[in-house]
Design goal:
One of its GO terms (molecular function) is acryloyl-CoA reductase (NADPH) activity. This is Oxidoreductase. It is built from nine helices and 15 strands. The protein is an alpha/beta fold. β14, α9 and β15 form a beta-alpha-beta unit.
């Protein structure tokens, strides 16, 4: 028997509740690889799955946790053997399939990636889906021409998980980073990560009718969308790109016009981390191990245990979590 955070639903009231319980290996869903989980983390989706589900959870009882890292215990797939260090993000694990908020997890081999050399399990979960998404964004911007010296790169929602890692990676690669935040108290934190400019959220949330504005940004990692993305698109330099990773400000692009795309050749790049092919994941994890400063990563980390998760799930849905939460499932 081992510990897991189990979410159950009362059929009469429709309300869910989460608590640490003891379960067994036989309770785990089908999979080719059994992993002894060492660390997990907390993402916005985890908050939804710990709480009301947000339409993500299909069946109860349920074990959330969309990320985990640990050591292979058993494997019927030749690609993995006992003792291998692995990391998992995405594939709807923690949503449709039981996830990493347990001391053991059983998953399909296709969903795993070998832990890259230079990262341990704890560091991998300090990165997690948020950091992987940030790295995929940087790679997409680079693939579309971004290079140091082209001008400042804007990061919206910069104090969040994706934004924090994107800020640190971009600064490490030699870019000027303009970090957008609605929380003035995070300015020192963002500057410690390498931001050279702090932009108040209010400066970018006004919807304007102008077809274009002054060219300011050489690239952008956007976790907000809504009115902010509509405004940022009008401020991009000629031929540059925005990597869109989130919708904290709404699913629509308020105030957006076609003009940035046809008059300045701006690119809007959609970034998905859930269904990324294996080779793309390996490339991103290798670049994370190479380009994300571990000392900067450590400044983002808030430690937690399984018993902390119900409260953290509520906090992240309210936008009250800064940086990255690393959950020691064995503590």
């Amino acid at each position: 028997m081992f510990n897991a955070l189990v979410v159950d639903k009362d059929e009469d009231s429709g309300k869910t509740h989460a608590a640490v319980q003891q379960i067994g290996v036989d309770d785990l869903p089908h999979g080719e690889v059994l992993v002894a989980v060492e660390y997990s983390t907390v993402n916005y989706k985890d908050g939804l799955c710990i709480g009301p589900g947000g339409g993500l959870v299909r069946n109860y009882p349920h074990v959330p946790g969309i990320d985990f890292a640990g050591t292979v215990e058993e494997s019927s797939d030749a690609r993995y053997k006992p003792g291998d260090k692995v990391v998992l993000t995405g594939w709807r694990v923690g949503e449709a399939h039981w996830g990493g908020y347990a001391q053991k997890a059983r998953v399909l081999a296709d969903w795993l990636v070998p832990l890259p050399e230079g990262l341990d399990a704890r560091q991998a979960m300090a990165v997690g889906t948020a950091g992987l998404t940030a790295m995929l964004s940087v790679l997409a911007l680079e693939d579309h021409g971004l290079a140091p010296g082209h001008g400042p790169v804007l990061v919206t929602g910069a104090a969040g998980g994706v934004g924090s890692v994107a800020t640190a990676i971009l600064a490490s690669l030699g870019h000027e980073v303009a970090a957008v935040t609605g929380r003035p108290e995070t300015a020192d934190y963002l500057q410690d990560l390498g931001a050279t400019q702090i932009v108040a959220r209010d400066e970018l949330t006004e919807v304007t009718k102008k077809p274009l504005e002054s060219e300011l940004w050489a690239g952008c990692v956007d976790a907000v969308a809504g009115a902010m993305l509509g405004r940022v698109l009008k401020q991009m330099k000629y031929g540059t790109s925005v990597a869109a990773v989130g919708l904290a400000g709404g699913a629509a692009i308020d105030g957006a016009l076609i003009t940035p795309f046809i008059l300045r050749g701006v690119n809007l790049l959609g970034i998905d981390s859930v269904m990324q092919p294996y080779d793309n994941r390996v490339r991103a994890w290798q670049r994370i191990a190479k380009d994300l400063p571990m000392d900067k990563l450590e400044t983002m980390v808030q430690p937690a245990t399984l018993s902390d998760l119900p409260q953290l799930g509520r906090d992240i849905l309210k936008g009250q979590v800064k940086g990255r939460v690393v959950v020691d499932v064995n503590a």
